[in-house]
Amino acid sequence: MSIDLSQFHQVFFEESYEGLDAMESALLNLQPDNVDPETVNEIFRAAHSIKGGSGTFGFSGVADFTHVVETLLDEIRSGKRKITSETVDLFLKSVDCIRRMIQLLDAGKSCDIPEAKTLKAQYEDILERDEEPSSATDNISSDTATMIASSDADSLVKKWRIGFKPELDVLRTGNDPLRMFRELAELGALQVKADVSRVPQISTIDPEACYLSWQLELCADVSKSSIEEVFEWVIDECELTIEPLTDANNVTEALTEKSEPVPTQKVPESALNEPEPLTGSKTIVSVVGGVDVEPGVRNLVEKQATPDKSKVEVSSIRVGIDKVDSLINMVGELVITQSMLGELGRDFSMERLPKLLEGLDQLSQNTRELQESVMRIRMLPISFTFSRFPRLVHDLSRSMGKKIELKMLGEQTELDKTVMERIGDPLVHLVRNSLDHGIEQPEDRLKAGKSEVGTITLNAFHQSGSIVIQIIDDGAGLNKTKIMDKAVKNGLVAEGDSLPDEQIHDLIFKPGFSTADHISELSGRGVGMDVVRRNINELNGSVEVESVEGQGSTFTIRLPLTLAILDGQLIRVGDHVYILPLISIIESIQSFQGMVHRVVGGCDLLRLRNEYVPIIRLSDIFNIKPGVQEIEDGLLVVVEGDNMKVAIFVDDLEAQQQVVIKSLEENYKKVDGVSGATILGDGTVSLILDISGLIKLAGVQRNEYKLVSSDDGRAA
Amino acid sequence: MAKILAVDDSASMRQMVSFTLKGAGHEVVEASDGKQALDKAGEIQVDLVLSDVNMPVMDGIELVKALRALPNYKFTPILMLTTESAGDKKMEGKRAGATGWLVKPFNPEQLLATIKKVLG
Fold it and tell me: ipTM for the complex?
């Protein structure tokens, strides 16, 4: 029977990722001076499972590497070796390395990476350093090699005499001598004689003990080790002698002379009658010593790996059974409502109108509940994203010589999987930022009268239909003077302007802004906070900062719970209805004479308190017939996108409603200024506007309309 | 065909073992740790137990001890699935009352050959 092992690969990969995550978090919890044995055990178990699985499924690269990891862990576990922060770091690097290897395998590639060799050498170094050395560096397959070698070395003899005297307790481990004899009989003709001399008086007999011993004679062309293997499991619980006999007659004589004549017990007839050559024993050799994957299986694994290179990534999601149950429950109710309405429809009269309305009410409730349950299926706890931070903070704080404690709150807060995947990088950036710019060096903290250990808190919670994630540090806070200097230097603010604190803080999100005196490894990656804000805006979210100098900063991210549904504002221009994301709307105003300024060669500007906001006419951009020509006759919706405000000129505002987003890119092609489409209640298709895209299309340039003070407005 | 209890905390190993055994016509009961295995063994009398050694909650060695203490599992074959080729785990398992062992990694053919040894 040949089994395609590749069908188990995906499960193996997934459980390996989980195991690696568990290893990582356990390693981070490990205090070298106070080691909790259960934590070490947990780490060991994870490594052990990965080694076992990778060996079984033919990923020898991973198995070899994990083997050395496991060896060192085992020495630590058994107390032979002390754990140091050096070994913890080595283990953490190994976790990364194994994860990388598994990812490569998962993508259908070879897991041969140089890192593994370097790390392996380091392990071998440590393992050889003191008393517990050599065996650790053995390859897994070396066992097999010696096993095979020794069996080859044995001379093949035709006849064997075997003396087998098991301990009384042998049956209590589930070992049955009869089973072993049966196995021997498969090797060749077998004669068995029992020695009953140990059997006591019936009154003192223990029915569970094995008083018998045996003399066996095997006529087979096999090696001594093949016979020993039959007794492998009991070899320490019996007296076993295996002697070659060249002359068959002698054997029989010797046997009859020595032991009392007891009827010969014949074991499986067919085997006894026809002594078989080595064929049967071959499989057994590979069973017992077989650590290597058989060639056939390995070929299959390799074949599987090569053509798969362009494997399509299908991500899966684990859903709690309660969520599925509630979904099924909803569908059940929907079916009931549907049949009720169906009944009404077949036989409808006007008296039954209230009944119909009631039914429709119920239908809309069912639909809403169903929608919510379906959404919940895509929701995962944010701990999936948070889990990477302990490691990140550990590594970074070590490399910067800072002492930092990471607190995580609200890890069970649920969030849409896609949003979660896309919020990871911005979060990492913000945490790095807090580590690098926020938390001070220990000595500076002491000078400022704070505890030496800085705290970074990640907090997630739900608030009115969105999820809020906060990154709070108790560091130095934002330095307003530095920010202003920099902003003036970069031309973001005019010299001598005084801005309220919030606006100064907000400047750090402007493009091209960085206050670090010297670019460090962390924050000098060419990615600024403006990119963080843009990424979050793309998710229809927002990010803000609050800070008190000397006490720390709080970054607050607000995100929609899902990307599949959007709270939209319907707007009308001519015959067309468009949708604006509600979150991007700041205000809607009716403009009066004098509020709008015409700029020659540019677009119109709305004077809104002390700023000028460019006006975008959708009719120009999409080339449609406008309903209202004069700005005073319509409405202006002020929206924010790409860090700037624009006013969109519309005929009228219509309803606000939740809309289901359909991708244009997937169904048609990417259209500038449009982020998607949806189908309205009356069946018409409506486009969802993309503010940053619109700004680009309209050709509005940021620099022309930066903050200006109110008195020079008239000149514009 | 036999009823076999397969115990391993690794889902992929469990699936592989279970798939192989079912393919050979055996009935398989799965458990992901010793405690669960003990509960299952109490519900259904199985003919053979295949157990991993390193598991959370209750490890394989503890499982063997607990099973041997049950009157109807005194003589039931129990095989440890172990990677420790070094030997001390094997011996620990034996002392606890295990019948024998199968060294990981093994392939389906090796698994079936070993099962055949025990079940005949």
Answer: 0.84
For residue B78, which residues of chain A lie inside 8 Å, CB to CB? 173-174
Helix (H, G, I), strand (E, B) or coil at A387: coil
Tracing tokens 């053979």 back to the chain, one arrives at B48
The torsion of the CA quartet A368, A373, A377, A379, rounded to 10 degrees, works out to 70
* Spatial distance between the Cα atoms of A284 and A233, rounded to a whole number of angstroms: 14
| Residue in chain B lying closest to A67 (CA) | B83
**R_g of chain B, CA atoms, integer Å:** 13
Distance from CA of A374 to the nearest CA of B (A): 28
- Bin A401: left if φ > 0, else alpha if -120 < ψ < 50, else beta: left
Contact B56 A183 (CB under 8 A): no
Residue A138 burial (CB < 10 Å; 0-12/13-18/19+)? middle
**Which residues in chain B are contacts of A57 at CB distance < 8 A?**
12, 16, 105
Residues in A closer than 8 angstroms to B83, CB to CB, are 48, 51-52, 55
- Quickly state the pLDDT bin for A265 (edges 50, 70, 90): very low
How far is it, in rounded angstroms, from Cα A415 to Cα A562? 7
Question: Distances in Å between the alpha carbon of A500 and those of A437, A497, A704, B27?
Answer: 22, 10, 22, 74
* pLDDT tens sequence across A621-672: 888 888 888 888 889 999 987 668 899 999 999 988 888 888 887 778 888 8
Residue A146 has pLDDT above 70, yes or no: no
pLDDT score recorded for residue A463: 79
Compute CA distances A350 → A364, B18, B21, whole Å: 21, 63, 66
pLDDT at A557: 93
Q: Which residues of chain B make contact with A12, given a CB cutoff of 8 A?
A: 10, 12
The beta strand positions in A382-539, using DSSP E, are: 404-409, 414-416, 454-463, 466-473
What is the spatial distance between Cα A561 and Cα A567, in angstroms, rounded to a whole number? 11
Nearest to A91 by CA among A49, A123, A121: A123
Q: What would the pLDDT profile of A87-135 be if each residue is shown by its tens digit? A: 888 899 999 999 999 999 988 888 888 888 888 888 888 888 764 444 4
Question: Is A94 strand, coil or helix?
Answer: helix
The reply to whether B87 touches chain A by the CB within 8 Å rule is no
A505 labelled catalytic: no
Is B16 in the A-facing interface, judged by CB distances under 8 Å? yes
Contact A8 B86 (CB under 8 A): no
DSSP state of A293: P
pLDDT above 70: residue A705: no
* Residue A70 appears among annotated catalytic residues: yes
pLDDT digits over A689-702, tens only?
988 888 888 877 55
pTM for the model stands at: 0.53
Contact across the interface for A49 and B94, Cβ inside 8 Å: no
**Segment holding A654, helix H or strand E:** strand A652-660
CB contact under 8 A, B85 and A283: no
**In chain A, count of helices (H) and strands (E)?**
24, 22
Phi-psi region of A496 (alpha: psi -120 to 50; beta: other; left: phi over 0): left
Which amino acid is it at B5? L
Tens of pLDDT, residue by residue over A343-381, are 888 888 888 899 899 989 999 888 888 887 887 888 888
The answer to whether A48 is a known catalytic residue is: yes
What's the distance, Cα to Cα, between the start and end of chain B in Å?
A: 11
